[in-house]
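Bug #77: duplicate submission created two jobs. Keeping one. Sequence:
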Amino acid sequence: MNDFITIALPKGKLFGLSTELFSKIGWTADGLHEKSRKLVITNDAARLKFIITKTADVPTYVEYGAADIGVIGKDVIDESGRDVYELLDLGFGKCHLMMAVPKDKKRARLEDYAHTRVATKFPRIAEKFFAERGMQMEYIKLNGSIELGPIIGLSESIVDIVETGTTLRENNLEEFAHICDATARLIANRVSYRLKFDRINNLVNKLEKFL
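Kept job's structure:
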């Protein structure tokens, strides 16, 4: 199996976009779809193995070498802190991280929120953002609907991913500060990139032609 390339793909919105892009260069396998009950799908002829996993776990599989490469959002890479090699910005899955606050309780300046509570799925990214501005904050890690934080008085603000802003508007929240943009990235295990350089680099070159 040493000559196989193992690819970690995230469930959710990036899965279909990833498999569609890979299929254009012939990197696919029978039964490779998100609803498959099989978590590992192999194409023996092409020497490919696909792992279907939760979004947050992709960088972990790649860092530890369980997968040679993977597709994941830049936001997940930054939040995970995993040691992976970013090979290519795939351009899809565009969104951005931001700080949002209740419209009717909005303060004048960002600094006015110092020493308040922030509800977020991204405490690492949030802490880096505020620390760079000399702001000490209390971070409350949530896994569900982050917008609930300010609504029920758990926090004064949120840090979250936004695509269209519809959910913010529906919950009387307003974007207050832009943190960073995020798109899907092709990442690699650092050892795999050296040992399987020819195949991985060939993949990158082919993908670039379609982007």
